[in-house]
Amino acid sequence: MQFLRVTLGDRSYPIHIGTGLLADAAMYAPHVASRSVALITNKVVAPLYLERVQGALQQAGARVAPILIDDGEAAKAWASLDHVMGAMLAARCGRDSVIVALGGGVVGDLAGFAAAVYQRGIGFIQVPTTLLAQVDSSVGGKTAINHARGKNMIGAFHQPLAVIADVSTLDTLPDRELRAGMAEVIKHGFILDLDFVGWLEANIGKLLGRDRDALSHAVRRSCELKAQVVVADERETGLRAILNFGHTFGHAIETGVGYGNWLHGEAVATGMVMAAELSARVGTLGRDDAARVKALIERAGLPVRGPALPVEKYLELMQVDKKAAGGKLRFILLDGLGRAVLRGNLAADLVRESIAASAP
Amino acid sequence: MQFLRVTLGDRSYPIHIGTGLLADAAMYAPHVASRSVALITNKVVAPLYLERVQGALQQAGARVAPILIDDGEAAKAWASLDHVMGAMLAARCGRDSVIVALGGGVVGDLAGFAAAVYQRGIGFIQVPTTLLAQVDSSVGGKTAINHARGKNMIGAFHQPLAVIADVSTLDTLPDRELRAGMAEVIKHGFILDLDFVGWLEANIGKLLGRDRDALSHAVRRSCELKAQVVVADERETGLRAILNFGHTFGHAIETGVGYGNWLHGEAVATGMVMAAELSARVGTLGRDDAARVKALIERAGLPVRGPALPVEKYLELMQVDKKAAGGKLRFILLDGLGRAVLRGNLAADLVRESIAASAP
Fold this sequence. Notes:
homodimer, alpha/beta, Rossmann fold, Dehydroquinate synthase-like, alpha domain, 2 domains, 7-stranded mixed beta sheet, 18% strand
């Protein structure tokens, strides 16, 4: 088992990474003994892991109320939140209750936001069961639901009490979701760690083949890199924005094709190709390195071309993105491979050309 | 003009109290210059003050998007929040935008919660226009909407950037709302300041007659007392609970008769009579002082008897109240007049008798 700590003062928390952890009562006991727990998961994850997690929680001394939501991005909505809140009130959960989020990014984002706002805030534990959630969404305290006009527009920064990443859950993950999660792993290399990019290029085959040692290393290094950034800038007032590399384009893709048609990681993958292209056009990234970005994404089985939307539609969708300050477009660019930089006031034509270069 | 400061580290903020403040651009300028502002108010307040506040904000250099919600407690709901979020996204509000809450407690609670969760949190300014909001809900950072199963069940602690309490707005306040606000003023005396109770007993006539000097003093002293408690316990882990004196019974009344039939202050007034009765039965408050509590509430024109609900219905409604820890009933009692104390594990029969003594 591996162990990391995200050091954020009185909001510090551990990340446990290993196999078989989700059924281990000792993981939960410090946080849930003698408390009521709302165990939130979805209808796909429940048959696989609900019983084991519920048993471990009960063994740790908790009273457990399981709450099921629908699968997929559409569940990150008010209707699900209202359902969760109602079920928790019916179960008499109070301010000392704890939410356990068992599932992927959607479950984690929704359950985390429920914890942020239930009776003005209670504790929660992330038990991520997808690669995306293990390396990205479960770490850092970002929680949210979607609004009809934009993704993640209603949310809160709310750090978990603990993250329990059981890599054996990746065995049951569909290939497409494994690849989508790999997009965020690769992103952490591109923006922060050239050595890790080299390691990924050498091991991408093993990772897609689900070699457990390779996956454990990738999850651990990703969490470490992300945690460094979160510790330096918890509420995204500066540095943390670099984690959004590829996301401005990516969110435009997700919104443009309708949530759920492209997976988040797929949209980010293509978004990174566009952002690398933009970096090359702005002059902060060499053509060779931009090609390296695209090649690794392609080898990971991820899309490198955007959906068939007019370029102006992309621009329109990006204007309302959260990363737009005062209406001006800002982008995270690569300043060489393994280093990211935030740039504002970019010429719209450079952005148009970068989209066109990667759109069908 | 009077000025207080709520000292909460990097979440500290000023409270300005005076006449004509809401039309003064200098009040807003430090927070809104060159920013977009979502000015949230309701359909009753808008004809009275919207134009003046909007003008002052524009003079202070803000781009202003007015957003109207319905009047009344029913507006503290998801539908209103969704409407506000949609209007802010349509107006291209970003993370540097500011919300201005112009109105009473409902507007402040809803707009404050919108600020807490819009794009994971933006700043907001409270411009309370009712006595209740000026002396209570605008100070302390509690924000929330209601759930069908309980009041204020979905919310956040989110401190404002500033509170601008213009007491001249009380001129247009209906008598019933003025009295309801007085309940919280009186509460601050009961729980924290015996001298202030004496002052209120001597000046209740002037206050109900809207004597401006008396009202200014009452608002200022109330804010001071509340701010002391908030500074000592921002997130209600201990001391702050005393501000809920009368509220456990009060929330049961509000929920039992349906939100909006009793005003919050009216329910709290009767709740305080019940809590004083309970204090007398437990033995922490003399019978004379319990009579003094009831007499002042009655002289303020507030109800001292609860609605015709079965006693068991009260108990049932109190179980799901946020103040219930681990399913056990806790109450704020008076430990002599001017001092409050939190007591857990009270015998249910004492609670029943206290309700029965004040129910019709």
